[in-house]
Amino acid sequence: MPATSPHDLAGPEVGTSPLLEVTDLVKHFRLPGGWLSGQRKVLRAVDGVSFEIPRGEVFGVVGESGCGKSTLGRLLLRLLDPTSGTIRFDGTDISQLSGRRLRDIRPRMQVVFQSPQSSMDPRFRVLDAVSQPLITHDVVPRHQRRERVVELLTQVGLGEQHLDRFPHELSGGQCQRVAVARALALAPELLVLDEPTSALDVSVQAQTLETLLDLREQHALTYVFISHDLGVVEHVSDRVAVMYLGQVVELGDAEQVLQYPHHPYTQALLSATPSPDPHQQRERIVLEGTVPSAIDPPSGCRFHTRCPIAVPECATRAPELRTLPDGSQVACHLA
After folding, report:
1. Are 184 and 140 in contact (CB under 8 A)?
2. Own/partner pairs for 309-314, CB < 8 Å, 24+ apart?
3. 3-state secondary structure (DSSP) of residue 108
4. Left if phi > 0, otherwise alpha if psi is -120 to 50, otherwise beta: which for 39?
5. Could you read off the pLDDT of 296-326 as tens digits, one per residue?
6. End-to-end CA distance of the chain
7. Most CB contacts within 10 A, which of 84, 112, 157, 299?
8. Alpha helices in 67-144 (DSSP H)
9. What does the alpha-carbon distance between residue 217 and residue 134 come to, in Å, rounded to a whole number?
């Protein structure tokens, strides 16, 4: 891992007014089948999520596979339509926008996906891939596009020699840098980074993270950083939201949440993460059972079927996300 963290950098000043406000956000997917009974099954991917992200912040989202974090990222970008709830971007409710109004706001919100190779058209050269947003939104004259692409590649640590290469001629780290350059082409304010380093080698991960932190500082960017890797999230994030079965169970300052967690689910995730200090021994918390289905989640607290400290109340009453004296928000009756 890199030696520096976002707290060591000057970075953009985190503003007091939120760039992004999410209130009671819900995304349910109706599944095929159920025609005979007349009741189609519903997958509750995101189920009542609320938070705010100030300008300039790196907001981490962590959880096991299937917890809803990638669906949440796509909702924030309006790549998916929410079932209910609101998403406010810079004061504008974008949850119901469509057509020209949604297209006008898209340049301000961009995404970097998990797999760099699969997010690029194999028939496109680097020049074509990075130029595509400029062409789609018609923001740079044709004769200036090559110069703009070279400028973007330079910002992410590549150069003019990469312009005519195809994805298969690039390493994984180079492909991801091209994806970042493409995301920056329209000078966005918000970047959603969906597992941006999980497909890369550890050494390449470190270089990519340093590049992302530098770009955040240079361009006053706001990040939503989605990952299952708690070490990476702690390194880059100012605040962290921990998700379980479509809901946020703990939210707060990254150091507070990932060093002194209150929720038993967060504690279990951290216990399975290797400590960078060889002298520090973490007691492993083994969760019993399997992750319940988001089609038929448990009643009450959704974590109670695996929780090592659950009490009868946990099975009957869902806990609200409440604020503790240290500023963390936790959805647990016993926190």
Report:
1. no
2. 309/264, 309/334
3. helix
4. beta
5. 999 999 999 999 999 999 999 999 999 999 9
6. 31
7. 112
8. 69-76, 99-105, 126-136
9. 23
Which domains, and CATH codes, for the chain?
Answer: 18-330 (3.40.50.300)
Amino acid at 109: M
- Per-residue pLDDT reduced to its tens digit, 259-282: 999 999 999 999 877 666 656 666
Rounded to whole angstroms, the Cα distance separating 245 from 271 reads: 19
The Cα 55–Cα 221 span in angstroms is: 8
pLDDT in tens, 67-103: 999 999 999 999 999 999 999 999 999 999 999 999 9
User: Which secondary-structure segment (H or E) carries 183?
Assistant: helix 172-184
Asked if 181 and 173 touch (Cβ cutoff 8 Å), the reply is no
Give me the pLDDT at residue 15, please. 58
Quote the CA–CA distance of 90 and 31 in Å, as a whole number: 34
Q: What pTM does this model have?
A: 0.90
Containing 44, the helix (H) or strand (E) segment is: strand 42-54
Instruction: Inform me whether the pLDDT recorded for 8 exceeds 80.
Output: no
- Evaluate whether 246 touches 46 at the Cβ level (below 8 Å): yes
How far is the C-alpha of 144 from the C-alpha of 279, rounded, in Å?
56
> Is the pLDDT reported for residue 193 higher than 70?
yes
Distance CA 150, CA 187 (A): 15
Question: How far apart are the C-alpha atoms of 279 and 252, rounded to whole Å?
Answer: 27
HSE, side-chain direction, 13 A CA sphere, residue 35: 2
Q: Measure Cα distances from 30 to 18, 34, 78, 131, 228 in Å.
A: 32, 10, 18, 37, 26
> Distance between CA atoms of 249 and 265, rounded to whole angstroms?
8
DSSP string, 214-271: HHHHHHT-EEEEE-S-HHHHHHH-SEEEEEETTEEEEEEEHHHHHHS--SHHHHHHHH
